[in-house]
Each structure stands twice: as C-alpha cells, then as structure tokens.
Amino acid sequence: MADLGEPGPGSVLVVDSDPEVRKAIVGMLAPALRVVQTSTGAEGLQVIRRGERFVAILCDVKLPDYGGFAWREALAAIAPGQAARTIFTSTFAQGWEVGELARREPHRVLIKPLVAEAVRAAIEDARRLAPP
Q1: 4 domain-assigned
Q2: Can you tell me the distance from the alpha carbon of 106 to that of 49, in angstroms, rounded to the nearest whole number?
Q3: CA distances (Å), 31 to each of 27, 44, 66, in order?
Q4: Helical ranges in the chain per DSSP H
Q5: Does residue 111 lie in a domain region?
Q6: Each residue's pLDDT tens digit, 9-68
Q7: CB atoms < 10 A from the CB of 22, how many?
Q8: Which positions ≥6 away from 72 have C-beta within 8 Å?
Q9: How many CB atoms within 10 Å of residue 58?
Q10: Which of 24, 57, 125, 127 is the most buried (most CB within 10 A)?
Q11: Is 5 inside a domain boundary?
C-alpha cells in the first residue's frame, strides 16, 4: 500500500451504491489497478479523510446520500487535488445534473453501462490532468 497522503501507483476509488456496478469496475481494472470500493458518498469521504489518495475516483452521480456535485464539493473541502480526479458515472445520459456536467467537463462523465476502454481512458486522463 502507498504511503498515506500520496496516490498509490494505481489506486482507484469507486463510489457507487450498486454492488454489480462496483463488481464490473473491479473486473475492468484489476489486477492492473488497486480498487477501493464504497457504497455511499459518506463512506467515500471517510476513505479520503483517513488519508488515502487515488489516481482517479469513479463516483455515481446519484448516490443514496449525495448528488454528484455536492459530493465533489464535499471532497474538495477535504482534498482539492482528489476532487479534480473525480470521474462521474450515470445511468442517465439526460437530466440537468448530468447534462450540465457533460457540458462543462465532457471528459469527466461516463454513461452506464460502462465500457472498459472508456473507463481506463478516463482514469488515464485524470492521472495526467490533476495533481495529487
């Protein structure tokens, strides 16, 4: 495991309430990347508060306890560099929040069902675009 406070060489946080989606993402990324999974926004924030850092964070836009923008704002208050590494996922290609996000940050939205190549490409983009 990497030192706390530094992103692991290939650590990704997945924040999604659907266990099947989390399982699919692990299947896409492991063993090349270490995947930490949480099912709520609060759990995801707790992982960050403990000091873990990630090269990318995959976060569902509709969590049981947070909306996507609100979750990223909460994350930014704790670890701004990690907020910049957030990639949102959504089942809905339409809708105000997803549409607004896709308009502002098209490289940061993946529509479900997720495609492995798109997930890996988004993670590589996050790794290059944002400081830890």
Answers
A1: no
A2: 28
A3: 8, 21, 29
A4: 19-29, 41-49, 68-78, 80-83, 96-104, 116-129
A5: yes
A6: 689 999 999 999 999 999 999 999 999 999 999 999 999 999 999 999 999 988 999 987
A7: 19
A8: 59, 83, 86
A9: 27
A10: 57
A11: no
**How far apart are the C-alpha atoms of 127 and 7, rounded to whole Å?**
10
CATH number, domain with residue 51 = 3.40.50.2300
Residue span of the structural domain in which 99 resides:
11-129
- Return the SS3 of 11: strand
Say what the pLDDT of residue 2 is: 33
Residues 39/16, Cβ–Cβ less than 8 Å: yes
Q: Check residue 102 and give its pLDDT.
A: 58
Which residues, in sequence order, are CB contacts of 112 under 8 Å at separation 6+? 21, 89, 90, 91
Within-domain flag for 62: yes
**How far apart, in whole angstroms, are the C-alpha atoms of residue 122 and residue 12?**
12
Q: ∠ CA(121), CA(60), CA(50), 5° rounding? A: 90
Query: Looking at the 3D structure of the chain, how many domains does it have?
Result: 1
